[in-house]
Amino acid sequence: ATATAGPRSFSAAEVRARCAQGACLVSCHRRLYDLSGFVRLHPGGEQLLRRRAGTDVSAALDGPPHRHSANARRWLEQYYVGEIEPGDEQASLSPAESAPGASPQGFSFSFQSLPETVDEKEVVAAAQTPDQTDLCYRTVDVEKDLVDWQKPLLWQVGYLGEKYDEWVHQPVDRPIRLFHSDFLEFLSKTAWYVVFMVWTPVVLYLSWVSYTSLAQGNTRLFSSFTTEYSIPVHKYYFPFIFLLGMILWSLLEYLIHRFVFHMKPPASNYYLITLHFLLHGQHHK
């Protein structure tokens, strides 16, 4: 494990100042989290988190209306940045009124909303002083994380054994690397639009070949087995054949995904665990 400094302590004034600058800081009891990089990924919507910036979300985590899962709570820990100073746990921003000066997060920030114990000069200093340190308090703890995130994962996951299945289904919000080779790592990443760029011409070409073949009028079903009971296939059937192909492929893809990709590899087999992670497990991280 790499040595790092201990967690920082944050005053209520500093939390307010950072929220006023655009950060989305929330606390759970005394633990402080910076969700600025997560707000757009939040399944419940960005504004739901923005409205809670500067507040304690421990009650919201437990619900109602939604009790967050253990995985969601583990995900939250990735954004841990430090501790709220003792006595400041209850200090939070007040909801913004529909008035000028409201911050982009939906909160108003004014000295009148601060507790009496908070010095205005401290707030101004916190807001105007550039942050010289990364807020995120991140460590490489192999005992807790089970892997070293700073090294390629593909050669590590096979050693997780019986812990692999639980570990692979806990997503993380951090860059991961699969290979030592920069070239192989480059090939492992694909932008979403590349899929359409590659496969759209292929689908169009094969569709045209199929349609022109049907248009010749020589295509008959079951002709390989019998000529007496074979069924002619006209070109007008092409849209229905195309639709049937999409349905059958979707069903096949689901079955492969459900029963092959989500198959639990044997805990004692390093190579099968590595293969599973390479084929699909990495998708969950």
Automatic annotation (TrEMBL):
<dbReference type="GO" id="GO:0046872">
    <property type="term" value="F:metal ion binding"/>
</dbReference>
<dbReference type="Pfam" id="PF00173">
    <property type="entry name" value="Cyt-b5"/>
</dbReference>
<comment type="similarity">
    <text>Belongs to the sterol desaturase family. SCS7 subfamily.</text>
</comment>
<dbReference type="InterPro" id="IPR036400">
    <property type="entry name" value="Cyt_B5-like_heme/steroid_sf"/>
</dbReference>
<keyword id="KW-0408">Iron</keyword>
<keyword id="KW-0492">Microsome</keyword>
<dbReference type="GO" id="GO:0080132">
    <property type="term" value="F:fatty acid 2-hydroxylase activity"/>
</dbReference>
<keyword id="KW-0862">Zinc</keyword>
<keyword id="KW-0349">Heme</keyword>
<comment type="pathway">
    <text>Sphingolipid metabolism; galactosylceramide biosynthesis.</text>
</comment>
<keyword id="KW-1133">Transmembrane helix</keyword>
<comment type="function">
    <text>FA2H is stereospecific for the production of (R)-2-hydroxy fatty acids. Plays an essential role in the synthesis of galactosphingolipids of the myelin sheath. Responsible for the synthesis of sphingolipids and glycosphingolipids involved in the formation of epidermal lamellar bodies critical for skin permeability barrier.</text>
</comment>
<feature type="transmembrane region" description="Helical">
    <location>
        <begin position="236"/>
        <end position="256"/>
    </location>
</feature>
<dbReference type="GO" id="GO:0006633">
    <property type="term" value="P:fatty acid biosynthetic process"/>
</dbReference>
<keyword id="KW-0276">Fatty acid metabolism</keyword>
<dbReference type="InterPro" id="IPR001199">
    <property type="entry name" value="Cyt_B5-like_heme/steroid-bd"/>
</dbReference>
<dbReference type="GO" id="GO:0005789">
    <property type="term" value="C:endoplasmic reticulum membrane"/>
</dbReference>
<keyword id="KW-0812">Transmembrane</keyword>
<dbReference type="InterPro" id="IPR018506">
    <property type="entry name" value="Cyt_B5_heme-BS"/>
</dbReference>
<keyword id="KW-0256">Endoplasmic reticulum</keyword>
<protein>
    <recommendedName>
        <fullName>Fatty acid 2-hydroxylase</fullName>
    </recommendedName>
</protein>
<keyword id="KW-0472">Membrane</keyword>
<comment type="similarity">
    <text>Belongs to the cytochrome b5 family.</text>
</comment>
<dbReference type="GO" id="GO:0046513">
    <property type="term" value="P:ceramide biosynthetic process"/>
</dbReference>
<dbReference type="InterPro" id="IPR014430">
    <property type="entry name" value="Scs7"/>
</dbReference>
<keyword id="KW-0275">Fatty acid biosynthesis</keyword>
<keyword id="KW-0443">Lipid metabolism</keyword>
<comment type="pathway">
    <text>Lipid metabolism; fatty acid metabolism.</text>
</comment>
<keyword id="KW-0444">Lipid biosynthesis</keyword>
<dbReference type="GO" id="GO:0020037">
    <property type="term" value="F:heme binding"/>
</dbReference>
<feature type="transmembrane region" description="Helical">
    <location>
        <begin position="191"/>
        <end position="211"/>
    </location>
</feature>
<keyword id="KW-0479">Metal-binding</keyword>
<keyword id="KW-0560">Oxidoreductase</keyword>
<feature type="domain" description="Cytochrome b5 heme-binding">
    <location>
        <begin position="7"/>
        <end position="85"/>
    </location>
</feature>
